[in-house]
């Protein structure tokens, strides 16, 4: 496999792991502290229980999240980041400073870009920091 093929395979793998909707958000919430299922769902507006359940299963499968069941009545399920999950979440948080959300952009965000991002940001433009 050539170097070109290797980095492409790696980036495809990153997309497979981190690309599904809500994955970044779940990692961000769990980077603060372990949470129960309902606490995660309640902290993320718009996240449904079925999607959260699916994302947590995927993140566990990829080795980024672990699930602990405490012997209480009823049983308490706690989700936390693994060492690898913590490392990835830390690196993603480092990227936060590179992105700005501009409610009144100083440069034109094309209709295509605005439409593409309307789900996450209805009345603004997401840009690289210091680019507007």
Description:
One of its GO terms (molecular function) is DNA binding. InterPro entries: ArsR-like_HTH, HTH_HxlR, WH-like_DNA-bd_sf, WH_DNA-bd_sf. Residues 9-107 form the HTH hxlR-type domain. The chain is an alpha+beta fold and 132 residues long. It has a domain at 34-99: Arc Repressor Mutant, subunit A (Orthogonal Bundle). Helices cover 50% and strands 17% of the residues. It has six helices and five strands. The chain has helices spanning 3-18, 23-32, 37-43, 49-61, 83-95, 111-117, and strands at 35-36, 65-70, 76-81, 99-102, 125-128. The strands form two sheets. It has a three-stranded antiparallel sheet. A two-stranded antiparallel sheet has the order 4-5. The longest helix has 16 residues, at 3-18. It is globular, with a radius of gyration of 18 Å. It starts with a helix and ends with a strand.
Any descriptors?
Arc Repressor Mutant, subunit A; two-stranded antiparallel sheet; 3-stranded antiparallel sheet; 132 residues; alpha+beta
Radius of gyration: 18 Å
The percentage of residues in β strands lies in: 15-25%
The major pleated sheet works out as: 3 strands, antiparallel
Per CATH, the superfamily of the domain at 34-99 is: Winged helix-like DNA-binding domain superfamily/Winged helix DNA-binding domain
CATH fold group of the domain at 34-99: Arc Repressor Mutant, subunit A
H/E order of the elements? HHEHHEEHEHE
The average pLDDT value, as a whole number, equals 85
Cα distance spanning the termini: 40 Å
What would CATH call the class of the domain at 34-99? Mainly Alpha
Low-confidence stretches: 114-118
CATH architecture descriptor text of the domain at 34-99: Orthogonal Bundle
Count of helical regions: 6
Helix content: 40-55%
Structural class label: alpha+beta
Q: Main sheet: which strands, in order across?
A: 1-3-2
């Amino acid at each position: 496999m050539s170097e070109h093929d290797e980095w492409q395979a790696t980036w495809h793998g990153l997309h497979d792991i981190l690309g599904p909707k809500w994955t970044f958000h779940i990692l961000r919430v769990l980077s603060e502290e372990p949470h129960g299922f309902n606490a995660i769902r309640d902290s993320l507006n718009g996240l449904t229980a079925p999607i959260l359940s699916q994302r947590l299963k995927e993140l566990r499968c990829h080795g980024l999240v672990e699930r602990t069941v405490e012997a209480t009545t009823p049983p308490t399920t706690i989700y936390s980041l693994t060492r690898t999950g913590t490392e990835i979440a830390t690196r993603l948080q480092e990227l936060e400073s590179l992105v700005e959300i501009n409610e009144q952009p100083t440069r034109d965000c094309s209709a295509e870009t605005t439409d593409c991002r309307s789900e996450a940001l209805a009345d603004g433009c997401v840009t690289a920091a210091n680019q507007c």
